[in-house]
Design a protein that fits this description.
Distance between the termini: 31 Å
Number of helices: 12
Number of strands: 12
CATH class of the largest domain: Alpha Beta
Bound molecules: (2R)-2,3-dihydroxypropanoic acid
Largest sheet: 7 strands, parallel
CATH architecture of the largest domain: 3-Layer(aba) Sandwich
Order of helices and strands: EHEHEHEHEHHEHEHEHEHEHEEH
Strand content: 15-25%
CATH topology of the largest domain: Rossmann fold
Length: 320
C-alpha cells in the first residue's frame, strides 16, 4: 500500500474534519491552536506534502520564497485567500484551494445580526440592562433606524452577497448592488445593478461589504466614499477589515454622518481597533461570520475534498 500523504493542519478544526483527516492522511494537528508563524510554515514545507491553513497563517512572498520543495498544496480552510500570495505560490508550483459556497449562509446570518444590532442600539441597550443602569424609558429613548423596507447597498454580489440579499428580502429591503459585472437575473432576483461604487453609495441607507480583499479593494471605503452615503447610513462589514479606512469610518461615526456600524472584521486581527471601543454605535464581533458547527464541518470537508482530488491526480474543485 502506498504511503499516505503527510498533512499539517495549522489550527484546531472541527472534530469531524480532524477524524476524517486522520483516517485518510498522515496528519499532524497544531493542537496548541496558535497561529502558524512564518518559521512554522517554512519548516512545514520541508516536512509535509500538504497544509490545511486558516486565514491566520500568512503565506507572504517572502515566506514562500524560503519553502522547501516538498510542499505541494495549500488547501485553505477559508474562502478568503488574502493571506496567501497567490502568484508567489503559483511560481513555486504549489496548488492553492479555498472553501467557497459552504460558509455563505452563516456569514450572511452574521451580516443580518450586525445590521440589525447596529441599527437598533444593541451595544448600548445590552450595556444598560446588563449593568443595572436602565432607569428610564420614554418614546424618544433609543430610537433606531428601521431596516424593513429600507434601501440596501451590497458591494460584491458573489455567493455571500447573494445569500445576504436573500435574507434581506425577508425584511422587504430594496436591494442595490455593485459588482465588477452584473450577475445573472436569476441570481440578482430583481436587485438593481450599479456600474460604480459611487453610484451605489448614494442610495445605500444600509451598506454591506461582501467583496474580497485584494490590492484593488484595499481601503475601498475611504473618507470620500463614506461622504457619498446618505446621512444616517449604517455600514456593515463581514468581509475583510482591509476594505475599510478605519480612521475615516470612525470620523464618519463621530460626526453622525454614518449612524452606526456593524463589524465582524478589522484591519488588525485578532485585537480589532481600540479606537472603536469607545463608540456605542459600533456593534462588533470577533471575526465569527462562518463560526457555526455546521459550517465549520462543511469548510473542513471541503478542504479535504480538495486535497483528496489533488492526491488522486484530479483537479480540485476549488483550485485557484
Ligand atoms: C473565510 O473563510 O475567509 C472566513 O473569513 C474565515 O476564515
Amino acid at each position: 500500500m502506498s504511503q499516505k500523504p503527510r498533512l499539517w493542519i495549522t489550527r484546531r478544526l472541527s472534530d469531524a474534519t480532524l477524524a476524517r483527516a486522520a483516517r485518510d492522511y498522515d496528519v499532524v494537528v497544531n493542537e496548541a491552536d496558535t497561529p502558524g508563524t512564518a518559521a512554522d510554515l517554512i519548516a512545514a514545507s520541508a516536512d509535509f506534502d500538504a497544509v490545511v491553513p486558516c486565514h491566520s497563517e500568512h503565506f507572504s512572498a517572502e515566506v514562500v520564497a524560503q519553502f522547501a520543495p516538498r510542499l505541494k498544496i495549500v488547501a485553505n480552510h477559508s474562502v478568503g485567500v488574502d493571506h496567501c500570495d497567490l502568484p508567489a505560490l503559483k511560481a513555486r508550483g504549489i496548488a492553492v484551494t479555498n472553501t467557497p459556497d459552504v460558509l455563505s449562509d452563516a456569514t450572511a446570518e452574521i451580516a443580518i445580526l450586525l445590521m440589525l444590532g447596529a441599527a437598533r442600539h444593541a451595544v448600548a441597550g445590552d450595556r444598560i440592562v446588563r449593568t443595572g443602569a436602565w432607569d428610564f424609558w420614554s418614546p424618544s429613548f433609543m430610537v433606531g433606524k428601521q431596516v424593513t423596507g429600507a434601501r440596501l447597498g451590497i458591494i460584491g454580489m458573489g455567493r455571500v452577497g447573494q445569500a445576504f440579499a436573500r435574507k434581506a428580502r425577508g425584511f422587504e429591503m430594496e436591494i442595490h448592488y455593485y459588482n465588477r459585472n452584473p450577475v445573472a437575473d436569476d441570481l440578482a432576483q430583481g436587485a438593481t445593478y450599479h456600474a460604480s461604487v459611487e453610484s451605489l453609495l448614494g442610495v445605500a441607507d444600509f451598506l454591506s461589504l461582501h467583496c474580497p480583499a485584494t490590492p484593488a479593494t484595499k481601503g475601498l471605503l475611504n473618507a470620500e466614499r463614506l461622504a457619498l452615503l446618505p446621512k444616517g447610513a449604517v455600514v456593515v462589514n463581514t468581509a475583510r477589515g482591509a476594505l475599510v479606512d478605519e480612521a475615516a469610518l470612525l470620523a464618519a461615526l463621530q460626526s453622525g454622518h454614518v449612524a452606526a456600524a456593524g463589524l465582524d472584521c478589522f484591519v488588525t486581527e485578532p485585537g480589532g481597533n481600540p479606537a472603536f471601543a469607545t463608540q456605542e454605535n459600533i456593534f462588533m464581533l470577533p471575526h465569527i461570520g462562518s463560526a457555526t458547527t455546521k459550517t465549520r464541518d462543511a469548510m473542513g470537508f471541503r478542504a479535504l475534498d480538495n486535497l483528496d482530488a489533488f492526491f488522486a491526480g484530479k483537479s480540485p474543485k476549488d483550485l485557484l
